[in-house]
Amino acid sequence: MEHVPPPAEELARLDRELAELDSRRAQLLTRRAWLLAALRPPAPTAAPGWNPSAWGAPPPGRPGAPAQPWGYVPKQPSAPRSAQNVLLTLGGLLLTVAAVAFTLVSWGSMGIGGRSAVLAAVTLGALIAPAVLLRRGLAATAEALAALALVLTLLDVYAVHAVAAPDTDGLGFTAAASAVLAVLWTAYGLALGKLRLPLPAAVVLAQWPLLFWAWAAGAPALMVGWALLATAVLDGVIALWGKGPGVRVTACLGGAAMGFSALTVGLALSTTASGPLGAAAPGALLLAAVAAALAGAWRAPKGFARTGGVVAGLAAVAAVGGVPAAALSDGWRVLAYLLCGLALAGVVRARLPRDAARGVLAASGAVVAGALVWALPSLAAVLLGPVTLLSDVWAGPPEGFRSALGSTLPWSELAAAPVVLALVAGLLGSAYRWWPSVVRIAAPLGAREETPKPAAASAATGTPDATGTPGAAWTAPSGTGAPWYTVGGAGARRRPSGAALRGAAGAGALALGWGALLLAGVVLDVPYAVAVAGETALVGGLLALAVRGAGSGRGASAVPVTALVAAVSGAVSVGLLSLASEGAAYAVFGALTVLFAGAAVRVGAEVPRAVFAVASVVWGTVLTGFAGRSLALDPHEAAPLVLLVPALTVLLGARLRRNPMALPVELAGALGALVAVGLAVSDAPFLALVLALCGVLAAGAAVRPERRPVAGYLAAALFVLATWVRLAASEVSFPEAYTLPVTVPALVVGVARRRRDPEASSWTAYGPGLAATLLPSLAVAWTDTDWLRPLLLGVATLVITLLGARYRLQALLVLGGVVLALDGLHELAPYVAQVAGTLPRWLPPALAGLLLLVVGATYEQRLRDARRLKDALGRMR
After folding, report:
1. Sorting pLDDT into bands at 50, 70 and 90, what band is 552?
2. pLDDT at residue 353 above 50?
3. 382: closest CA among 509, 510, 508, 524?
4. What's the CA gap between 385 and 378, in Å, rounded?
5. If you write DSSP's letter for every residue of 294-352 in order, what string do you get?
6. I want to staple 213 with a disulfide (CB 3.0 to 4.6 A). Which of 95, 175, 254, 788 is the partner?
7. How far apart are CA 160 and CA 170, in angstroms?
8. Cα dist from 131 to 84, 119, 146, whole Å
9. Would you give the distance in Å from CA 317 to the centre of its chain?
10. What is the pLDDT of residues 138-175, one digit of tens each?
11. Is residue 590 predicted with pLDDT exceeding 90?
């Protein structure tokens, strides 16, 4: 019985056999080509001037190349087009130079008839030649002669003005000539459609008639602006309906230049107008520019439409806002422009193209941003101005808020700054409060367009288009009206979400509202006490908002973060401001300490809690410094008072234990201890006292197991350092009398610890006791000219080193070995210096180089020795 495989299996088998046949056929064809090349006789050496192709002989082939038929003539490679273009460019350039030289030099030596004949013949020939060349397919040569003809027509105009009409106005003649040339070259370019140069040249020539006409007529600046705007409109028309990319690009560049110049003229006239009536005329020019930009936006591509919307929005603000601004003082003009910029947001209800409307909204944002940039420097002056009070602390309260800042800003001209900040803050706050309504209003501008897919992709995905057939991909569901930042898809993932935008609006409202209140106090020049109390109250409000918003899970985390940053910044600013008065300083820093401590207790998130706790510790440290100043203590005498806050942080850390807030609090306390050490540096006895107190605090922290690895060593180091400083301050020449009584009981305690816990480290048991004597003795031995102390120290350290090696104690071995080596180096130093003085100067560098060579040659062995030494030390206790 014959087995019939399933259709799928049989199809796979046939595919494999066909693939094997194709592979075998390719191999056989390759072998055949190689055999044909091997059997072909070598080509004879060609005699000079002999062409084998002319006699029907085949050209020589490469081994392995397919055989060519008899009589095959290879195509000769043509010269690269780049070389052709270079030759044509050089030829046209030389002809242009010759024409210029003829016009400027030889023109005056000919009669009027000869001049006319030469001009007519050369120009006519240069204009006719491209047409003939185009019919013969020589397009590049035709372009070169067209460029020559363009230069000749310009020279003709110059020649006609110099000879035929020398008395005419140059500007007027130039305006008429450029208009005539623009028309002629437009007709010439349309007649010879294959040439790429004439039409862009006509566009360039069309830029000048109106401008030179206004200039020749002595028109005022406003008329010049209208001429520039009319030229820009003409360029826009050409850019939309022109023929060819060269024409459109040239028109875009010309329109951008002329339009920018027209807007500059209108803006300059509007801002310098003496009154509202004087600003109306340039406003009309700017409004005409708005109409032209919006008209072009209806037909322009996406990017150009958005640019047109931006230009239209900015021009509208300058036109409408310039009229009331002309009636206001300098400090309030920005408010008029800001109100007009905010009014542009109504474009969401206008029936404009979506991209143009987005451009108008971008212009509105740019106006608002410009107003904020104008107001923010004054806010920075309010926040940073109290820094000047550091040079004269508690000099007495000033009369008003402005005098406390020490700023030279013209506050009378900045009266609108708080209004600007408050207005923008109010709008952002409204958007934050009624965000769903904002999303619903902005939905028409956010809906994304349908973009057709390729046919293959549409067939593969089966996505229906608007007609129900495959062929289009949707990035937003039809009819949902969902804005771009709430719709799924790749485009939506690249943009911020609605929650992020809402949070940014709320954060901006909070920051700007806070700045508006600060600036209002400066502009009104409130009394100093009111300013200090008001800023402190603002800090309290910001802290409450940060505590309330942190961890609320409402998707607006930017608001509590902004409140936290503003609270810390405001606390620093009001703290500096309070330095003018002793009572204000105590009140402000006391209030800040309590406020931040309360915020740290109430807030739920870990990061804000740590920030609040650290800030509270810092403000409390400043308070203790104020206490020393009030008691008329010197800085070193006030240093022990500063340690009160670090002591409280150690107790608080013991209470919090493994709470995440414990570590930031203790680190802030350590910073306060470092400040106390810095204050006591000028007096050695107080420095020793402060170091000892810091050692006590570190020892207290070391009681906790989680702090013992760091705090224990720090306490030992601080105690030893305090001992050294105290001995140096007392000018003790025999420190052993003071250190040995400490070392002996410390070693006894270490021995007892090792007996109770054999696994205890030798550094913990014996390190502090040995260091208390060895290190001060070594420091004194290096300045001792006698031989007895270094000898006794060397013997003691030798015994300690041997004991460490015998009982495998790392602390004894390392401490004893290091001190012994340094003591021996001190004893050998005079002899080494004496020997070095008698040696030639070239010998030390030579010895150093030899040492480096030896070490480099045996680097791997030295590395293994170092590793063995490290392992041996690591195995010790």
Report:
1. low
2. yes
3. 524
4. 10
5. HHHHTTS-HHHHHHHHHHHHHHHHHHHHHHHHTTS-GGGHHHHHHHHHHHGGGGGGS--
6. 175
7. 12
8. 19, 19, 10
9. 30
10. 777 777 778 877 887 887 777 777 766 777 777 888 88
11. yes
Helix (H) / strand (E) containing 451: strand 451-452
DSSP bridge pairs for 570: none
On whether the CB atoms of residues 320 and 340 are closer than 8 A, the answer is yes
Q: Are the beta carbons of 764 and 786 closer than 8 angstroms? A: no
Which single residue is written with the structure tokens 């027509």? 153
Cα 535 to its chain centre, rounded Å, is 33
CA atoms within 13 A on the CB side of 560: 22
Q: Which residue has the tokens 């206490």?
A: 627
Residues 624, 641: contact at Cβ < 8 Å?
Answer: yes
Long-range contacts of 133-141 (CB under 8 A, 24+ apart): 134/192, 134/194, 134/195, 139/194, 140/81, 140/84, 140/85, 140/88, 141/88
**Separation CA 734–CA 727 (nearest Å):** 9
C-beta separation of 336 from 325 below 8 A: yes
Name residues whose C-beta falls within 8 Å of residue 421's C-beta, 6 or more positions apart in sequence: 372, 375, 379, 512, 513, 515, 516, 519
Task: Take residue 634 and report the two structure tokens written for it.
Answer: 């010197």
Three-state SS string over 165-230 comes to CCCCCHHHHHHHHHHHHHHHHHHHHHHCCCCCCHHHHHHHHCCCHHHHHHHHCCCCHHHHHHHHHH
Only one residue has tokens 């001009």, namely 119
Spatial separation of the C-alpha atoms in residues 371 and 510, rounded to whole Å: 17
The answer to whether the CB of 285 falls within 8 A of the CB of 230 is no
DSSP 161: I
Length of the chain: 877
Give whole-number Cα distances, 109 to 100, 102, 116, 159, in Å. 15, 10, 13, 13
DSSP 29: H
Amino acid found at 460: A
Asked if 144 and 126 count as a contact pair (C-beta separation under 8 A), the reply is: no
Pairwise CA distance, residues 554 & 557, whole Å: 8
What amino acid is encoded at 482 in this protein? A
Q: How far apart are CA 721 and CA 280, in angstroms?
A: 80
HSE (side-chain half, CA atoms, 13 Å) at 425: 17
Residue with tokens 């954060």: 507
DSSP class per residue in 797-862: HHHHHHHHHHHT-HHHHHHHHHHHHHHHHHHHHHHHHHHHHHS-TTHHHHHHHHHHHHHHHTHHHH
Distance CA 843, CA 723 (A): 44
Are 403 and 521 within 8 A, CB to CB?
Answer: no
pTM of the model: 0.67
Distances (CA, A) of 587 to 496, 579, 801: 44, 11, 60
| 472: number of Cβ within 10 Å | 15
* CA distance linking residue 512 with residue 430, whole number of Å: 13
